[in-house]
Design brief:
mainly beta; 8-stranded antiparallel sheet; 84 strands; 8% helix; elongated; EGF-like_Ca-bd_dom; Nidogen 1a
């Protein structure tokens, strides 16, 4: 009867649960996009647009007819100044409504900001629903006007805290300002996965983003001062992350505030519904979305170009409508073996479906009977069958939930470990807890509990003294029971999860306590795992804490228990002074109960836990934290303090007395009789309360001291001391580093600097000595080395060619043919005469000249790279054809590129990516010819990361993280072509094997390395384990090696493998920070990398391990490439391509494009391919699909998803 009679109530509860328990999705935002009538804020950093309002906005005690929408996540009541004056500050000097305020960017196709005014009925109705749900005890409101502002996929203007520098993380959130005649409200919506970063860079430092409301500066009698403000986030990252996880409106991710009233206004009022139901049953995450909507309104499909809006009509649920709730059993649970007992009183009406639905959804026990499940009960429990399943019940003399049962009156113990990170006071560094011991002992007969936590450092121990809540749960679990009431263990046993949120007043420091109780062990001891994350106020060593008795009301529901309380404690300082402080504690306990029987029916929905004789102590000598308290669970007594019908002022505390007696006491910082409490203006009553060089800012119930400009808080966090003016000794020349020819001075902030010897010198930076590089075999084995001050020179020996870094002997094919014919003279009657055959012309590199002419006949023709005549090019005597090397085919007829995209002229070039374009800089004798720099490709709305070049076909390849995709285009003209567009997360580094005709790339989101043919076919994953943030990748196809970087913050490394992914090993793993760029020089066989964390450029021979620093003090390198003795890299701080000479170890040139934005990948586009062959050079190495080189052979590999079954794999060295 219970399921049938309660079906409609349970179903309605379930609907309310679905509407509020899940985090809000982006498609549940208010409609947005141009289709919704939105305007779009101009894309760029720090853009503002004025919006004139058709109805005034009430903000604090003022009325505004216009507002200003800003890129940086806020709306202002006046035009904001330059972002440099307010970033990182809360409150600012002007009126601000901050949804999530930081240094944000919408340029280059990254994110958009939509905004509009709206008075449509569906929008106003949705706004009213949010407001009325958040303030259930107030009169209902009906807004008449709304402003909707939506920040979609906005990125940090500078690298976020993840540290990689790529703007892959996006934030999406919405602000709705709803107004009626005498009040205005702010509704803030933060989508699930919509808060992906919580800080942005401000003046080179990570600063937590802010949310809140500020009135700005207000005029006084003598001067202006900071007006009132209200912060919705703190200075901790967790407060930003919780915007999408918590609520004050009853729906996760939705926050509502009353921000202005007329004619009077006191302060910003937050919503009053902070509790959430438990997580949904597991099957809900596996089935499809329900067919019924959760609200009346419009759902949005988000498209980068156009955001479509689809109407979604509300469908009311009625008890007599079975179609709305009917579900197939197989969609909820897999088919079960054996018969399933019918639920009681099944009928053919709609309630049959509701009963059947809950029959499959809420059971925590397996289906079946006691005959095959008795072993799941405690040895001190009996199993009982019910029509819908079985339950376990503790026998007389024992108590628990049937799964765990303990003897009545027996003392109980709890053991576990505590992990986590806790910030103390203003310290920027957390105290790490790596598994300290927690032990507890409870005398059940009198409800007395004892808790001891060991190995707590003295930097944290005193500050944890007020947190009796750490061990309070064990007191609740085994509290002394009044008749008719049950303690926690007797209701839910020993397997449950508890989360407590502790907020310290008045500065809103927040600590999250998560505890997982895993039942009892073989000794009947409760086992618990505890995690602490957040911040606590600092208390000096030697402080003690006393706590008065307190009471908590526990609300019991199906599989969910909640409580909320305010606790007051007195701090006794080492100097003899005392302070009274408070904190709020909200906790949620989730568990699984048996729903088949009636074990929970006698549990009262509200029970009061009374705690007295609270004792707390920190033993500094043994570093042990101790708590002791007496616990009793019983009747709430209907005291008005617990029912809320007390009439105390909002700024007062209700003190329960005997029976229904109570008293109202104004909270600290307020004055009155308890029913009417007025704020005490501490700043006015004691003008010197903040001391010298400080400004006092009164706030409701408290005050805040802020140092004047030029001053900062000293080590005591209270006294304002003058800020030392920093001196840049490097710039002023007042440093003591060695001469600029031998050392470099690097300014590190404040008045500090470091001295470092330039490459080619060794020492401490203040005394540098020349290094004899010739002692370390820096030249080629067939070259002579000459040491010079700070550098060296290499010269190939007689009989060899090259630049000294690379020397070679012998002749090219052209030279061999030429010398053979020149030496093939014959002797006739008139003496020696030359050969009758044509003698080829060879260029300076020994290759065939594209144009060949016969000196005897005067005719000319074109040849390919192998010296073979190109058909149809032979000309008559006296005429010269136009010849280029193109592997024997006639020149391709290509589409003419756009006017702003020019094909590259002959020669070697640098190609680099900059936002939505790829540009080139010509090279001439290793030097950048900057006046010839031009754009190769314009790709608006794209963020190009990696670039690679195929020297055979003259094609540039690139990775794009916005689509994401991998594409290519000919540098001789033509349209871009997408090569790969599916199954990509964040493709970043890319390299080309010009011999094997393949591309390799890294994917930092899917954490893998892949290979494919140049057209994107034959795709295969070659490395997919032990990768966290792979980025740069380069290939050495001649020797069959692959190299890549992984800038994992915890363990950065540089790795290598054969080109088929085998023989993988770590090359470098020490002294790395953010290894962004990687390059391999085929002439010197040097592998070089640029590190944005250590600010160094280093090189090594991979087979020797001779790691050498070639440049220090670089700023923020990203991409790197080599050409001869030069290394070129892109730098995010300088927005430039920087050239450095590897031999001298110095920067030699810099090129800054006209467009000053970040530069990403860079590569060298050689005029001719580097010499060398491998086993894949001819006939694809005999492989059917992928031919991947190894040092001694090659591997034949098949794609992950071969299109045909005719693929044959062969191992390496076959």
């Amino acid at each position: 009867m219970f399921w049938r009679d309660q079906g409609w109530l349970l179903w309605a509860t379930f609907l309310g649960f679905v509407a509020s328990a899940h985090s809000i999705r982006r498609d549940e935002f208010f409609p947005f996009g141009q289709s919704a009538g939105d305007q779009v804020l101009e894309p760029e950093n720090d853009r503002t647009q004025r919006l004139d309002l058709s109805a005034p906005l009430l903000f604090y005690d003022r009325s505004f007819d216009s507002i200003f929408i800003n890129t940086n996540g806020f709306v202002a009541t006046e035009e904001p100044p330059s972002e440099s004056t307010y970033l990182g500050k809360m409150p600012p000097s002007f009126g601000m409504i901050a949804a999530l305020h930081g240094d944000l960017d919408t340029s280059a196709g990254v994110g958009k900001v939509f905004f509009r005014q709206d008075s449509r009925a569906d929008v106003l109705r949705r706004a009213a629903e949010h407001i009325n749900r958040a303030f259930p005890y107030n009169d209902e409101v009906d807004p008449t006007h709304a402003v909707v502002v939506t920040w979609v996929d906005v990125a940090p203007h500078t690298p976020h805290t993840r540290g990689d520098g790529l703007e892959k993380k996006r934030n999406s959130f919405q602000l709705v300002l709803a107004s009626l005649q005498k009040a205005s409200y702010a509704i803030l919506l933060y989508a699930r996965d919509g808060v992906q970063f919580s800080s942005t860079l401000v003046q080179g430092s990570d600063v937590i983003m802010h949310g809140g409301f500020s009135k700005g500066l207000v005029p006084g009698f003598w001067f202006t001062s900071q007006g009132p403000y209200y912060r919705t986030t703190s200075d901790e990252e967790i407060s930003v992350r919780e915007l999408a996880e918590q609520t004050n409106s009853g729906q996760r991710g939705v926050w509502v505030y009353e921000i202005g009233t007329s004619p009077t206004f006191s302060d910003v009022s937050p919503g009053e519904v902070t509790d959430l139901p438990t997580e949904p049953p597991p099957f809900l995450a596996q089935t499809t979305e329900p067919s019924w909507p959760l609200y009346t309104g419009e759902q949005v499909k988000n498209d980068p170009e156009q955001i479509e809006i689809h109407s979604n009509q509300y469908q009311p649920l009625q008890p007599h409508d079975p179609e709305v709730v009917e579900l197939d059993e197989t969609e909820i649970n897999p088919p079960l073996k054996g018969p399933i007992p019918d639920p009681p009183n099944r009928t053919q009406n709609g309630q049959n479906h509701i009963s059947h639905f809950f029959y499959f959804s809420v059971f925590s026990y397996n289906f079946g009977t006691c005959s095959n499940n008795r072993n799941k009960c405690s040895q001190f429990a009996d199993c009982r069958d019910y029509s819908s399943g079985f339950c376990c019940h503790c026998r007389p003399g024992f108590y628990g939930n049937g799964i765990q049962c303990v003897a009545e009156g027996k003392p109980q113990r709890m053991n576990g470990k505590i992990h986590g990170r806790v910030f103390v006071g203003s310290s920027p560094y957390p105290v790490e807890l790596g598994g300290v011991d927690l032990h507890s002992y409870v005398v059940v007969n009198d409800g007395r509990s004892y808790v001891a936590i060991s190995d707590i450092p003295e930097t944290l121990g005193p500050s944890l003294l007020p947190l009796s809540v750490l061990g309070g749960v064990i007191g609740w679990a085994f509290a002394l029971e009044q008749p008719g009431y049950r303690n926690g263990f007797s209701v839910i046993g020993g397997e449950f999860t508890r989360e407590a949120e502790v907020t310290f007043m008045p500065w809103n420091e927040k600590l999250i306590i998560r505890q997982e109780f895993k039942g009892t062990d073989e000794l009947d001891h409760l086992v618990v795992k505890t995690t602490l994350e957040g911040k606590v106020p600092e208390m000096p060593l030697g402080s003690t804490v006393t706590m008065d008795p307190y009471a908590e009301i526990y609300q019991y529901g199906s599989n969910l228990i909640t409580s909320s309380s305010t606790r007051e404690y007195k701090v006794n300082m080492p100097d003899g002074s005392t302070e009274t402080r408070t904190y709020q504690c909200r906790q949620t306990i989730t568990f699984q109960s048996c729903q088949h029987g009636d074990s929970l029916r006698d549990v009262k929905p509200s029970q009061m836990l009374s705690v007295d004789q609270v004792f707390v102590l920190y033993d500094v000598n043994n570093k042990i934290l101790r708590y002791a308290m007496s616990n009793k669970v019983g009747d709430v007594n209907e005291n008005p303090c617990f029912t809320g019908r007390h009439g105390c002022d909002n700024n007062a505390v209700c003190r329960p007395g005997q029976g229904s007696q109570f008293t109202c006491e104004c909270a600290a910082g307020f004055l009155g009789n308890g029913r009417d409490c007025d704020d005490i203006d501490e700043c006015r009553e004691n003008p010197q309360i903040c001391g010298y060089n400080a400004v006092c800012n009164n706030q409701p119930g408290t005050y805040r001291c802020e140092c004047e400009d030029g001053f900062q808080f000293g080590s005591d966090s209270r006294t304002c001391v003058e800020v030392d003016r920093p001196v840049n000794h490097c710039e002023d020349g007042t440093h003591d580093c060695d001469t600029p020819e031998r050392a470099q001075c690097s300014y590190t902030g404040s008045s500090s600097f470091i001295c470092s010897c330039l490459p080619g010198y060794v020492g401490d930076g203040r005394n540098c000595q020349d290094i004899d590089e010739c002692q370390s075999r820096r030249c080629h084995q067939d070259a002579d080395c000459f040491n010079t001050p700070g550098s060296f020179a290499c010269r190939c020996r007689q009989g060899y060619r090259g630049d000294g870094s690379y020397c070679y002997s012998g002749e090219t094919r052209c030279e061999e043919e030429r010398d053979s014919l020149l030496g093939g003279t014959v002797f006739g009657p008139r003496g020696p005469r030359p050969s009758e055959s044509h003698i080829p012309a060879c260029d300076g590199n020994g290759e065939y000249e594209p144009l060949q002419c016969d000196r005897r006949t005067g005719s000319c023709w074109c040849v390919d790279r192998n010296g073979v005549e190109v058909r149809g090019t032979r000309s008559a005597p006296g005429r010269t054809p136009m010849c280029i090397h193109d592997d024997g085919g006639p020149p391709d007829v290509r589409p003419t590129p756009r006017p702003d995209v020019d094909p590259l002229p002959p020669g070697t070039h640098l190609l680099f990516a900059q936002s939505g374009r790829i540009e080139h800089v010509p090279l001439e004798s290793y030097e950048m010819r900057k006046e010839g720099a031009k754009a190769v490709l314009h790709l608006p709305e794209r963020v190009i990361i990696g670039v690679a070049y195929d020297c055979v076909e003259k094609v540039v390849y690139w990775t794009d993280i916005t689509s994401p995709a991998i594409s290519k285009a000919s540098i001789q003209g033509g349209e871009p072509t997408t090569v790969i567009r599916t199954d990509l997360g964040s493709p970043e580094g890319i390299t080309v094997d010009h011999i094997g005709r393949t591309i390799f790339w890294t994917d930092s989101m899917k954490d893998r390395i892949e290979v494919a043919s140049l057209d994107g076919s034959r795709r295969r994953v070659i490395v997919d384990s032990d990768l966290i943030n792979p980025r740069a990748i380069v290939a050495d196809p001649v020797h069959g090696h692959l190299y890549w970087t992984d800038w994992n913050r915890e363990a950065p490394k540089i790795e290598t493998s054969y080109m088929d992914g085998s023989n993988r090993r770590v090359l470098v793993q020490n002294d790395l920070g953010l290894p962004n760029g990687l390059t391999y020089d085929f002439q010197s066989s040097l592998l070089c990398w640029a590190d944005a964390g250590t600010h160094k450029m280093e090189c090594m021979h991979p087979d020797r391990g001779d790691r050498t620093s070639v440049l220090e003090g670089i700023q923020y390198p990203f991409g790197i490439t080599s050409y001869g003795r030069k290394i070129f890299y892109t730098d995010w701080k300088r927005n430039a391509v920087v050239a450095m000479d590897r031999h001298s170890g110095r920067e030699s040139d810099e090129f800054q494009p006209a467009k000053q934005t970040k530069l990403y990948g860079i590569t060298s586009a050689y005029s001719q391919c580097p010499p060398g062959r491998n086993y894949c050079s001819v006939n694809n190495g005999g492989c059917t699909h992928l031919c991947l080189a190894t040092p001694n052979g090659r591997s034949c590999k098949c794609p992950n998803n071969p299109a045909t079954a005719a693929c044959v794999e062969r191992p390496a060295e076959y």
